[in-house]
């Protein structure tokens, strides 16, 4: 039977997991104040199901047997069967409880976990990209270009932090500069439109590289995002440099848009492996220029700080913070909390 009582505390040990399109990261919390232990990362493509991955990564290892689980998934959580957006797994909490011997399962959106993390990360895990100091208690925004493009908000109200999940990575994005109008016609569309995720993720870097090459009258067989970022940062490929430049500018525009939506005076946080790898490009001025170019509110954006989250397991930090102190957070559990009958 489903349980949605916000007062219900999870029994420890708690399995926490960050399930993305490419990688799944798991860990175990032995008590509310413990750090995540027995951290294990697997490739989603290597397992037929999440249950098999958990068996291999945690249950079959020398780790405490979890009694409950809090899992962050890359996709909207709706119903008793939750397919992941960029992965073949379908998460079935009732089946998971029976197969893995769990008492409770809570499913969150992956960027809810990232939003929760910004309340718990230490300063040494944040690389600042301009702006003034954050306002205490003000709203925050998290964006993460990775396998896809995740977006979430974080609002402080009634003494608690409330994560706001969504699918903001799928908003429309379009050309603005003269060069954009030359390149954008060659960006792959889905059902006739270009969403932000078509540009601002791993495959988006490849899409941009190919679009720039086509605009220059050249063909390209590049299909590795790491090549684009590496060659661009090393100054080895002019097409890669321009592709990364457009990527950074569009990320700045989108981050500024969401900062306006949430009035993110508490900070805008960029997370994920791509952001961590391209910090030099994010610091060269293009990102901030695009982020702040939001007349008539440019002065407000000028003050908003932007940070790159450098912690490699930020989502697990967020899940651990929630599992250990659920009273600090307004996480909606209705329809997302399953309990053993």
From TrEMBL:
Tagged with keyword Transport: no
Residues annotated as transmembrane: none
Catalytic activity: D-glucose + ATP = D-glucose 6-phosphate + ADP + H(+)
Compartment(s): Cytoplasm
InterPro entries: ATPase_NBD, Bacterial_glucokinase, Glucokinase
GO MF annotation list: glucokinase activity
Annotated binding of ATP, by residue: 17-22
Entry superkingdom: Bacteria
Main location: cytoplasm
Keywords for the protein's UniProt record, in alphabetical order: ATP-binding, Cytoplasm, Glycolysis, Kinase, Nucleotide-binding, Transferase
Enzyme Commission number(s) of this protein: 2.7.1.2
One Pfam family recorded for the sequence: Glucokinase
HAMAP family from the UniProt entry: Glucokinase
Family note: Belongs to the bacterial glucokinase family.
PANTHER family reported in the protein's UniProt record: GLUCOKINASE
Annotated NCBIfam families: glk, PRK00292.1-4
Name the UniProt record assigns to this protein: Glucokinase
Source organism of this protein record: Aquamicrobium zhengzhouense
Encoding gene per record: glk
